[in-house]
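User:
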Amino acid sequence: MLPDSLASTILTMRPFLPAKDFAVSLGFYEALGFEATPLGEKMAHMQLGRFAFLLQEFYVKEFAENLMMHVLVEDLDAWWRHIEALSLAERFDVGPPRPPKLESWGLRVSYVFDPAGVLWHFAEEPKA
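Assistant: Predicted structure:
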């Protein structure tokens, strides 16, 4: 078991997400609202509020299309209005985002596909 003293020294934990075409993925995430900080020519730190991931030019179809990111939000309807207004499918040649629906596992979820095939779940707990 990891001692608490070591766990408390972790500053952040970020996944690496693939990009088939780095420039297209970068534009996609900036359109969603992420702030990009370049880390060389083919990598960027992508920040949204206090959360982040590392976007890299690396692509393996089977990996990318089986990768999912989960974002739990307070107001999914507001996020959906934002996502829908971006015309992501037309601008970035991605699958059309799916509107919020209540899933059998208890959360309302809207699905967004990135240009590499990564599936994002924007979700909220149902209101009582």
